[in-house]
Amino acid sequence: MTTSPEQPASTREFKRELRLLDASMIVIGSMIGSGIFIVSADIARTVGSPALLLLVWLIAGVMTVICALSYGELAGMMPHAGGQYVYLREAYNPLIGFLYGWTLFLVIQAGTIAAVAVAFAKFTAVIFPSAGDTNVLVAVGTVKITAARLVAIASIVLLTWANTRGIRGGKIIQDLFTSAKTLALIGLILLGLFIGRNAGAIGANFSDLWSASWTHLADGKVLSVEPLSGITLLAAIAVAMVGSLFASDAWNNITFASGEVVKPARTLPLSLVIGTGTVILLYLAANVAYLMVLPLHGSLEATDVIGRGIQFAANDRVGTAATAVMFGDMATLIMAILIMVSTFGCNNGLILAGARVTYAMAKDKLFFASAGNLNKFSVPAAALWVQALWASLLCLSGTYSDLLDYVVFAVLVFYILTISGVFILRRRRPTADRPYKAFGYPVLPALYIVAAVLICVALLTYKPAYTWPGVGIVVLGIPVYVIWNKFRK
Q1: pLDDT band at 473 (very low <50, low <70, confident <90, very high)
Q2: Antiparallel, parallel or unpaired: β 221-227 and 213-218
Q3: CATH 3.20.20.70: does it fit domain 12-488?
Q4: Which residues pair with 227 in a beta bridge?
Q5: What is the three-class DSSP state of 309?
Q6: Residue burial 123-153, b: 16+ Cβ < 10 Å; e: rest
Q7: Contact 91, 85 (CB under 8 A)
Q8: Where are the domains of the chain?
Q9: Buried-exposed string 206-240: b where 16+ CB fall within 10 A, e elsewhere
Q10: pLDDT greater than 50 at residue 439
């Protein structure tokens, strides 16, 4: 029996195996991590109103869906590996595409993978305490290698290896874990709405829906409580949206894997709408459930979950606090298992998709050439392992959280540029094939751009310490681009 020679790496092509269900699961799974269980505490402190808490999530949801509807046009036009990187390159120039790819690889994707992996490890330690962050295995200067960080790295390596074995294995993991965590989240929402409802919390939250205030903290203490109205109210809403937008992000990851989607011109736009719409509805329902179980206002000094409220839930773990009202001492274990499933599935989607951008950059000779090859399973194994290495280093350094805080502003800027690209390409390539056209064009895309710009202005004004470093990371890519091209030539 003879075997056929292995196909040269340079001639291999992606296998289109992601159908509508798989693509939608990547959207949903990449969006739902641990954010929905945590960030409502910070939003509640920033706006201090039950109605505004829901409004912040609603605005973020509407913006996300509008953005996804607009991306659908670009995805249908250019169903190639790399997604948003390709859209920016084609709408503007290779430099803008590189700056996005650079920021994505350096911070956005790798930083998110690291953060999600560490969250997985922290909740694993709830069940296995020896795997916690307090178990320091090696300490070298300020760098500490703890059991939790090794668990985080091990989860990244395991998922990376699984995804190097082909797109089919990656999609099976994604479908399984996304289904499990979606059903679990729906179950918790229903329990909160119909069984765990607390008359005291309902009375406190719904008797005064709109009175707004901004609780300022420093060193774990309340500095001041600022009443909100007029411009300061709008600014507080914009600042509060950082959390809801970040928890709603990563839906664009499916566009990175466009080269592996079956009938991409139809499947990509549909999966974006189905995925983002599903998650936003779940997020809104979860926050309504929180308000039915816990009072929004609380005290930092309180010792019980009701007294601390949503604002001061221990370690901002609102989901755990709400579950504690319903299940008592079992709450911590229940939420640990749910978040472990949620973060594991989330990271699979991020790992699967992120390497496709590195692959596309390598094909454009803007990254190491080996990252632009597919292995015998038709996946970019080298790009996957480079991504895993960098994310693992971020886990060890512990800097991923700061980097993600810095880059939220940059993420919004790239979304603005990408949606603007719809207008640019309509003018520059009017006859291009557009199997799907942006819903509500030009009004809805323009509305998104205006809203995102206003949020960026508010962040520059009220959170300069978090925004300017993000700008610096992006701008640093310019000399890197120039130097890379000089040496490449």
Answers
A1: confident
A2: antiparallel
A3: no
A4: 213
A5: coil
A6: bbbbeeeebbbeeeeeeeeeeeebbbbbbbb
A7: no
A8: 12-488
A9: eeeeeebbbbeeeeeeeeeeeebeeeebebbbbbb
A10: yes
